[in-house]
Amino acid sequence: MRPLRTYDDWKYCITELCKVPLTADFVAARLKELRNTRDHNTQNFVGSWGEEHRKQVIAWFEQAEIELSQGSPNNGST
Question: For residue range 9-27, what is the model confidence (pLDDT) as tens digits?
């Protein structure tokens, strides 16, 4: 698996390797969870990947949210 250094790396991992479409509902749910530092899943995420990576992943989900709101033709397909 290639390292997740950029938004495109992350998006490729989610949509192509994991086959998870970046839908508005999925993005909103993940943002809600990742922003809640008391959430059990978020605590596990931080324990495994670190706080800085959590912040980066939030930024990538926010970028996906913007793409979705703008009707980007590549949503969930690249």
Answer: 999 999 999 999 999 999 9
